[in-house]
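Data card: per-record layout.
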Amino acid sequence: MYGRRLRGLALTTAALLTLTLVLVFFWAPNDATLGFLQKIFYVHVPLAIVTLCGFIAGGLMAIQHLRTRDARWDVRSYVAIHISLVFGIGVLVTGSIWAKGAWGHWWVWDEPTLVSFLLIMLLYATYQPLRFAIEDPERQSRYASVFAITAGAFVPMNFIAVRLSTAYLHPRVLGSTSNLPGPMALTFLVSLLALALLFATLCKYELTAKHTRAQLRALRRRLDGETAPAPARTRSAAPSLQPVARMSARAGGGPA
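The structure for this 256-residue chain is written out next.
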């Protein structure tokens, strides 16, 4: 299921990323104040939006896991949070470069947007250690889902609090105060769509890889004629699709 249309999605993502680069470097004008440095905006801001949406999506998938007890929702939640953490690192790096060029410092502690995003990243940085600390697979997935839901609820609350703050240095991109010229606004929207597709592609690829490994392990046991119960699961921060693959293999069906 996870590998379906992955190639088409990857090709579409690559084409849109290429179009984004063309628009950023050859069509969108330079900023009157920051000049060429402003072009990092087309990476930094869309990355931040996709990252926060990915964290929220991970929380919604965790709700589905607790409702259905389906291990696949736990894996999807894990993958969404994992990829969001990777994107979040990109947000912090590009934000520091922007801060140095715009404000003369690599970090500005009295800027609510920067500090709030760092707090969110530090919160989610504890997600995988939490999973790793719990050996029992069922408790691991259940506790991780509760964490994902709680942290996911914190993200929009934090965003609203920052938007309501009066002292800020960060430019406002979304909302009535945005004054981006037409070419800049279009380039920003294309970049946002491209990075959202990149996020979806990476999630789909990781889910496909996990599912394929689980299917191979199930088939290997069948070929070996293994009748004993599966060995105890080793401690790992990553959830497994092995139970799903094992049931599918016993039923003689294809990928779940």
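Known properties of this structure: Residues 6-205 form one domain. The chain has one domain: 6-205.

See the next section for split statistics.
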